[in-house]
Amino acid sequence: MATCSGSKAIDLRDRAILLIAAGGRRSEVATVRHSQISVADPIKLRPADPVSPTVRRVRIALGRPKATTAGQGALVFAAGPAAVAFHEWMQAANITSGPIFKEVRKDGSIGANSLTPQSVNLILN
């Protein structure tokens, strides 16, 4: 995480991937599209505490992984820092449709193409 703690586009994208990717396979993370994302109701940090602060959540529909049967889809919920990192990347990259995790060029500009599963693997390792 220390290598992606900055505010450059590549840092924002990689931080979001690191915090989100635990919920899915690399191929699923690489191909996430805007249409698969929705804002979920915030949750309390301490559910038993009535005055506990809430944290934002994002729901990501990953589709049907190999281990599920037809009609089932995997849902991943990102909360707290993961949801914040995800939101910061989407805002910085001005993502309103299409792929979420896009290439970031050497000059810092954001391309239109989604990352490959191999690229996600390099970020995670």
Can you walk through the features of this model?
The chain has 125 residues and is α+β, with helices and mostly antiparallel strands. It has one domain (2-124): Intergrase catalytic core (hpI Integrase, Chain A), CATH 1.10.443. It has four helices and five strands. A three-stranded antiparallel sheet has the order 1-2-3, with helices on one face. Strands 4-5 form a two-stranded antiparallel ribbon. Helix 1 (9-20) runs antiparallel to helix 3 (81-92). The longest helix has 12 residues, at 9-20.
Short description:
This protein is α+β, with helices and mostly antiparallel strands.
Structural category: alpha+beta
CATH class: Mainly Alpha
Looking at CATH, the homologous superfamily is Intergrase catalytic core
Q: SSE order, as H and E?
A: HHEEEHEEH
User: What's the structural domain tally?
Assistant: 1
Give the spatial strand order of the biggest sheet.
1-2-3
